[in-house]
Amino acid sequence: MNVQANTQPNVLADVRNGVLHVTINRPDKRNALNRATLDALRDVFAGAAHDAALHAVVLTAAGERSFAAGGDLREFDALRSEADAAALFDHAAAALDAIRAAPVPVIAALNGTALGGGAELAVACDYRVAAAHACIGFVQATLAITTGFSGSADLFALLGPARAMRVLAEARLMDAKEALALGLIDDVCEREQSLDERVAQFAQPFAGRAPHVVRAMKQIAAAHRHALAQAMRDAERAAFVATWTAPAHWEQAQKFLDRQRASTTDPKA
């Protein structure tokens, strides 16, 4: 299957030197993850499973401002019932599961800020390499919700339960150096270094091995990850449904949307 055949407007994909480069292409929306973008990501990564020549996948986004500004709250604002919330979780989780299931290592190239669902997208990848100015934040609690894209299992696996729970509760933006020290990010560009250059350096150990060997390594890692994630999935889904449908969430969501509208009508806002 040709991965390029799956390219959709919200997501671009091309293979270069045995590496699949996937780019979220909504820079005017700060690369927010709406349903169409999640579908496109799932399709591209599903297609990658059929390319036996791949050594790695790099997931990034257009522009230098945002890797992904979380879920597209303008689109999701109409989803109010428990059934709606459960369907939203399942839809997003399916996209992230396609990334987790990629048969080769997936490197998130954080070109800018990864917020909320965007942070969940980043930790669904095997590694995260950040531009010097990039930031990451599990800020879901500021909207009075828990993780809605199935990212808690990844976060807890990376940091351990105690540190992960504190990160979720603090709900703040971390710069790349702090996230590196914490273990959320694996590598950070030097100030004058391009992200493409740093990612290429990071991917070199995989690019230098035979594809079937890389796939065997990933198969072992994926088995370990799957066992941990499945044990948490039902609990994470139930927690998201409960918090998404609570009045406190809709109060905070309305404030967020009001601020967004104000910023688009008043450049000084």
UniProtKB/TrEMBL annotation:
Domain of life: Bacteria
GO function terms (MF aspect): catalytic activity
GO terms under biological process: fatty acid beta-oxidation
Family recorded in the similarity comment: Belongs to the enoyl-CoA hydratase/isomerase family.
Protein name (Swiss-Prot/TrEMBL): Enoyl-CoA hydratase/carnithine racemase
Organism: Paraburkholderia piptadeniae
